[in-house]
Every structure is written in structure tokens, then in C-alpha cells.
Design a protein that fits this description.
Oligomer: single chain
CATH superfamily of the largest domain: Hypothetical protein af1432
Number of domains: 2
Number of helices: 11
Distance between the termini: 34 Å
Helix content: 55-70%
Shape: elongated
Length: about 240
């Protein structure tokens, strides 16, 4: 770990402690910090494979969600958190003594990672795009599978509703297989993650099918059946 990375980790930890939500929900704060570390490691792996600056990528990925230090009041606030993170990150990055061009590229990548929009001019370079790519790759991890099902109270649904969710999710995941990524390394990691998800839902679907009775009778799906939160089961850039 470089001195700059160590300083960035310390800065991130301190900023997230400012969150009023995390003060009341420490488990959510722990998840946000852990997610940031995972995204940084994924970004670093992509940077190594693609010949990018690994230290710069690690630092940018660590800071991509730093604006969670503020209250996420509504969906619009949440959608803006990439741009807000860039605003918080900029003076810190400048204080690390980084070259101005590097700071611009890092801030631009942080700003666009949620919805592909920044509030200042910039270029979507492979480096900038990798911050979103690393975030997306981590968004489709083993823990997120659990989180998605827990969030929608999957265990409390009827068998018909469970089967409907699984089939709907499989169809959606198939659309994600060929999403564009900034680098070949990121695309390969993404295909591995989506492949894991598809296999999980395929097996879950088979298990649920085997849980049905032999008469062919099954409960109808309620129109109020919970839907998975798109922020949990959707790639960044699609919001």
C-alpha cells in the first residue's frame, strides 16, 4: 500500500463517519466501506491488466461513494451521488499532490459512475470508465444475491411469486451479458459474474419447479408482488 492510498483510506473512513444514516445503521456504513474496498481492488486488478496507473485507480475507486457521508434524502439525491463524490474528492486529491490532469480524470470517472453524467467537462477515457466498471462488477457479487432477495422478503413470497421473480430476473440478466465495458479485462470479469448469477437463478428455478404439486394447480401471482430494487439488481449507468 502506498502512502497516498493509506491517506485515502483514512479520509474515506472519517468521511463516512459523518453520515447521519450510518450513525443509526452502522451495518449499512460497514457495507459501504467494504464495498468501496472491493471496488478499489477490482479497479486495481483491471488497471494492472490494462497498463493503467494502479495507485490512481485504487484511490479513485476508494472515493467513488464518499458522498454517502451525507444523507440520501430521495432518489434524485442518490442519483447525484457520483457527482457529489467528485466534488468531495477533488480538494482531497489535489492535496495529495497529484498532477492536475490525473485529478480531472479521476474526478470525471467518479462523477459519471452512477448515471454517465458529470456536471463539468471531461472525457470518458478507459480509466474513467473503469471506475464505473469496477463498481458494476462488485454490484453483481455473491453478497448482492443475498441482499437482493432479503430486501424483497423473498422467503415470504408464495411459490408462484418466487418462480415469477426468478424467471423475470433470468431474462433481465441475459440482457446484461453483453453490456459495453471500457476494457477487455473488465468485460471478462463481468461475464464471469453474470454467468455466476445466471447459474444461481437457473438452479433456484429448477428447485422451485420441483417444489410444485403434481396437479398443475398453483397460486396466481399477486399484482402487488414485490419487485427487486433496480439499485440492487441493475448496473450503474442504467438509472
Amino acid at each position: 500500500m502506498t502512502e497516498r492510498i493509506a491517506k485515502t483510506e483514512a479520509f474515506l473512513r472519517e468521511k463516512l463517519k459523518e453520515s447521519p444514516f450510518f450513525a443509526e445503521h452502522p451495518e449499512a456504513g460497514a457495507y459501504r466501506l467494504e464495498h468501496s474496498f472491493r471496488v478499489a481492488r477490482i479497479g486495481a486488478a483491471i488497471a494492472r491488466a490494462e497498463g493503467m496507473d494502479e495507485e490512481h485507480m485504487t484511490i479513485a475507486c476508494l472515493l467513488h461513494d464518499v458522498s454517502y457521508c451525507r444523507a440520501m434524502l430521495d432518489q434524485d439525491t442518490w442519483k447525484d451521488h457520483g457527482r457529489a463524490s467528485a466534488r468531495i474528492a477533488r480538494p482531497f486529491l489535489e492535496g495529495l499532490g497529484l498532477e492536475p490532469a490525473a485529478v480531472e480524470e479521476m474526478c470525471y470517472g467518479i462523477a459519471i459512475h452512477v448515471d454517465d453524467r458529470a456536471d463539468f467537462p471531461g472525457e470518458r477515457t478507459a480509466f474513467a470508465g473503469t471506475i464505473q466498471d469496477a463498481d458494476n462488477i462488485d454490484r453483481f457479487d455473491a453478497y448482492r444475491l443475498y441482499e437482493t432477495l432479503e430486501n424483497m422478503s423473498f422467503s415470504k413470497l408464495s411459490l408462484a411469486e418466487k418462480r415469477s421473480h426468478v424467471e423475470r430476473t433470468r431474462r433481465q440478466l441475459e440482457k446484461y451479458l453483453d453490456l459495453p465495458f471500457a476494457t477487455a479485462a473488465a468485460a471478462a470479469l463481468w461475464r464471469d459474474r453474470i454467468g455466476f448469477y445466471l447459474e444461481f437463478y437457473r438452479r433456484l428455478g429448477e428447485q422451485l419447479a420441483g417444489s410444485a404439486g403434481y396437479t398443475g394447480e398453483e397460486e396466481s401471482v399477486s399484482p402487488d408482488c414485490p419487485q427487486p430494487d433496480s439499485r440492487l439488481l441493475g448496473p450503474a449507468g442504467s438509472f
